[in-house]
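Exercise: predict the fold of this chain.
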Amino acid sequence: MLYIAANIIVPTQFAGYSMMSQTVSELSAVNSPTRALWLALVVPYGFLLIAFGWGVWLSAAERTSLKVAGVLLIAYGVLGFFWPPMHLRGDEFTLTDTLHIVWAAITVPLMMLQIVFAAGLGRDFRIYSAVTLVILVLFGVLTGLDGPNIAANLPTPHVGIWERISIGAYMIWVIVFAVVLLREKSIRD
């Protein structure tokens, strides 16, 4: 919920920012007027994600796939603390911009693997997880297709929508995953 709140609050502090045509990363870009606010909100999110991953690990008992999902959640949370910032559109493309793309190329598969390894919690959750993966791939591809236009400072009329759908699908999946784990625990107790 914290990450979703950051995505709603922070854009209002960036004059001229468009949630429709600009990426989430532009909120934390080098020289962005919202970089400090963004970091102040998402650093706690990283710690919460790590704690959730640890909770998944602890709840896994003998289920190796859930333990792997917990480790992947922890890795994803830790990696987020070291995410290199991109530069604002129109600024010179530097090493941190390249590393930003590399981080995305690492974290997106981590998200997808979390979903794959956790999906064994029943038929309905497996179907829901499969649908989430399809959404991540589809809207991730649409986002990626606009990548060169971002670097070239060209229009990207829908990149913000595509990326937020992808991020939102993952965030909602995490919430549903937590609820499924809680229900499973209450049934066992």
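Check your answer against the key: The helical segments are 2-9, 35-59, 64-80, 95-118, 123-145, 147-151, 159-188.
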